[in-house]
Amino acid sequence: MSKSKIGVHPALGYGACALAGCLWGTGFYFGKIALTQLTVGHMVLYRFLFACIGFLPVLRLPRFTGREWILLLAASFLGVPVQFILQFTGLSLTTVSHAALMVGTMPVILAIGATIFTHERLDWKGWLALLGSTIGVGLIVIGGTHGAGGSTYAGDLLVVASLVVALGWILLNQHLMKGHSPLVVTAWGLFTGTAMLAGWVALRDGVPPVHDLSMRVWLALAASGLLCTAATTLLWNWGIHHVPASRAGVFLNIEPALGSILGVKLLGEQLGRSAWLGGALIIGAAVVLTTTGKSEAEVILE
After folding, report:
1. Is 6 part of a structural domain of the chain?
2. pLDDT in tens, 76-91
């Protein structure tokens, strides 16, 4: 496998995206815990405040042009307040497993967006791998039985809507990282996005509570911010800086796979034989997508 144009082996880029997918996979579980005592707005705000704390030690002054600031603010607006308010409003109306299934549509959305907007080319094996991976996520969720809370079409569709918004965030970040490091783009994207989110939440829900939250909720919020947001965003942005976004998209299916498993194991749902087949499809798709087709260097340079 050839190296990318700046000398980083593509396996490292894929590894970063895979680790991001694993950590993202715990986000719905921690979010569901936090939503037991918080509104959607307050929960999302705390998540991003913890994420900003995680980035404080590595924060550096940016050197963006005026146009780049506009792009950064647009990406931040889409990626933080819009995406996460939509996504966790959807989660509050559905089950963890159903929300995880909806996230399984993201690789296809990403691949189509990357093909249209950044002219990345995905051959038939790549599309087949994405389809197989998405089917695998569906099999994992179908293999479980939902709890008494149940799912709703409104909740499911809100999660899908948040994924369409996330496409704009991903592609804008990828453009910004052509001239700036993933660390700078990620950190300032989180800080500016959190500032927008804080203004919206303060007007809509008021000041978030502090003293009435249990330790379990505080730990869930800290994990959501430091692991599921700060670490994952940096890992993902660094990863797609070194490999094509359309091929890295398959690793987004780790998130719904792990998320549905957590829902099954920790929230009382059952995992059937179809779930094991789904896991095999996801792993097989990842192998096919990252070991076939044109080399990453050729795709990135085009």
Report:
1. no
2. 999 999 999 999 999 8
